[in-house]
Amino acid sequence: MNSTELQEEFSYHNFLNNEKWKLNLPTYEKISSELVFDTPKVSVIIANYNNAPYLERMLDSLVNQTISLEKLQLLFIDDKSTDNSAEIVEKYLQKYSSIEFYQLKENTGGAHGPRNVGILNARGDYLVFLDADDWYDENALQYMSESLENSGDDMGFFGLVQSINGKLTLKSKAYFFDGNKKERDIQELSSAFYEWLGPQGIMVKRSLIEKYNLHFPSQRVGDDVTFFYEAMRFSKKITQGERLTTYLNRDDNNVSLSKTVNRDFMISWLRALSYINQTFPDDISKEKFLARRLEWLVYNFGLRRDVGYKFSLKRIIDFKMNIDRYLGKINFDPAIYFRTGARKIVWKYLLLEDYRGVVRFNRWHSLRHIMKKYLGIMRREENQYFYPVLNSKIPKIAINMRAIAVNRVENHVMIQIYTNGIFNHFEIRNKLQPFDRSKLSTKKVSLTEYRVDIPLEIDIEMYDFWVIYNNYQEQKIERIENLLSK
C-alpha cells in the first residue's frame, strides 16, 4: 500500500491529528443528577452498550469511592442500547450526585464514539475510562489521582485483576510488579508493559489529551491501545502504582471474544500499528510496542484455530500480505521479544514466505500442545523440557518453564526448575485476593534445585505457589500442594 492510500485510511478512520473526529460524532440527549460540580478532580468516562447486567456493580463501585462524589464527574455515555441500561442509570441519577447521562441518538458501532463524547465533555483534571462491565476498588480513584499529583507525571498505570466467573488473577503485571515509581522514562519499560494498554488501570491528565488532540480512532478494535500508546509517547514519563485499582470482567466471555478475532480484527490492528509506526520515530519504546503486538497477532492468526477467521493456507497468506501492506519492511527483529518458541518459528516461516510450512507446523504443534496439556507428555534434555517430538522435520520447541516440588523437610520444600528463562523469585498468592502476595525465602542449592521456605501456619487451600521469571512471566509450582498436605 502506498503512502497516499494509507493516509486515506487513516483519515477515514479518524486517526489523524485534526478536528474531523469531533465532526463525526452523533448527537445526544443529556440528563444529569440534580447536583453536579464544575471543577471535579477526576472525570470517569463510561462507554456502554447493552451491559445492563453489570451496571449496578460498576455504578456502586463509583458512588462509593473514598475520594467522594464531590470530586468526581461520572459521564455515562450510552451507545443507543436496546436493553434496560437507561432505567438502571436513571435510578442512580435520582439518588446520587455527579452523574451525567448522555444518550447517543445513533449507534457508533464501538466504544470509540462514546469515549470521544466523554473527552469533549470532561471537566476533571484527570481522566479515566471505565468499561461498563468492569469496576473499581473503592480507593482506586483517590489513590490514582494522588499518585499523579505527587509525581507530577501526565499518565499513571496501576494494578488490576481479571475476574472470570468470580476467580481473580493478576493482569498486566508489568504495571505494578516493580513497586511504586514516578518519572519513569517510557524508553526503560519492558516489552511486557505493552501486553495490555487497555483502559483499565490507567489515568491520564486532561491537559495532555487536550494539548495533543488525543482521541479514539473510529474502529472497533485497537482504538484504545492506539490512544494510550500515543498518550505514553507524549507523556514521555509515567507513574506506576503497586496497589489494586481495577477489576476487569471476563465472565463467560472467552468463547464469544475469540469469535470476534476475525479478518476485520486483523486489518484494524495492522492499520493501528501502521499509524503508530509512521507517527513516531524509531526507538526502543516503539520497537517493543510493535514487537509485542505483532507477537500477539502471530499467535492469533498463525497458531490459533478457535477464532472467527478460519485457519487455512489462505488465512496465513492473507495475514503475511497485510503485514507487508501495512508495515512494509520492519527495521528490527521483533522475534527477539517473543515469549514462546512456537511464535518465533511461525514468524520465521512468514519471513521466508513458507506458508505451507506454517500450516504443517501449526498442525503438528497443536497436537504436541494437546499431548502436553492433557497427557503430560514432554521430553527432557539436560536442564530443559520440550514438547513431544512427533516429526523430526518439525522444529522442536522448548517449554519456557517447569517448576516441580520434589521433597519436603518441615517447612522447607525442594523445587526443581527447568527453564530457558531467567529465574527471579518464588511467591505465594491468595486465591481470593491475588494482590495479597509475598516473596518466599529461597536458597539455590544446585543448577536446577532451590530450597524454599514455606510458612508453617499457611492455609495451603487458600494460596497458590508461583515462580516468577523473565521479570513478569510466571509459572505455577507443580505437586507442591500434595507435599504440603502430608
Automatic annotation (TrEMBL):
Its EC number is 2.4.-.-. CDD domains: Glyco_tranf_GTA_type. It comes from the Bacteria. It is an enzyme of class 2 (transferase). SUPFAM superfamilies: Nucleotide-diphospho-sugar transferases. InterPro entries: Glyco_trans_2-like, Nucleotide-diphossugar_trans. GO terms for molecular function: glycosyltransferase activity. Keywords: Glycosyltransferase, Transferase. Residues 43-185 form the Glycosyltransferase 2-like domain. This is Glycosyltransferase.
